[in-house]
Amino acid sequence: MDASTLFENDESDFKYVASNELFSESASENEAHVKYPEFNFARDINDLIFKMGMVFANNHEFKEACREYGIKHRYQIHFPTNDKKRVKATHFKKCGWYIWASKLNPKDPTYMSMQIKSRKFEHACGKVFTNFHITSKWLASHYLEIFRHDPDWSIPGIITRVKAYHTLTINPIKAWRARELALKAINGDEAEQYGFKSDTSNANNSNSGDIT
Ligand SMILES: [Zn+2]
Q1: CA 66 to centroid of ligand 1, rounded, Å
Q2: Residue 115 backbone dihedrals phi, psi, to 5 degrees
């Protein structure tokens, strides 16, 4: 399993059924002439600029983009409306900033793309120095490669890094949890693989005689 999949909240969003039949039924004449800006996660996530009409693969990707935007610019984003057809992103401070995205093709149940339909991109508020988007899961995922190379990365080291790169202070428990999650993700595949085999072969299991 790819380590990144451990961090997905809702994998059902990724179930995509290609269906040319449904699509040709619901495709209208107008849509053929319009080219919408398409969000590309790998290309756009690090320097995200939301655009009116922008298309996301699904609601999960749209929310992920909002969270990353919040982390980068130090805004805490809420989703007061949040289902597979409609997502409204607002700023926690209720300053007026919002993005409303809904299904690009609402009549097609298999086509999950979400599009920005209305928005107010200006904030009338200050930035914050704590941010609930920076969860231990997010840290584990974001710094996975560092944890891979340095499984003993110290708690103060993690805190210092987050403070330097995100201008945010996290508590030691969050840093510790992040390391636990990352190491679990890194070692998880191996442990699982050998876990199945160890039923018949405990030769390498140092705890085999230690039954309490
Ligand atoms: Zn705001």
Answers
A1: 13
A2: -130, 140
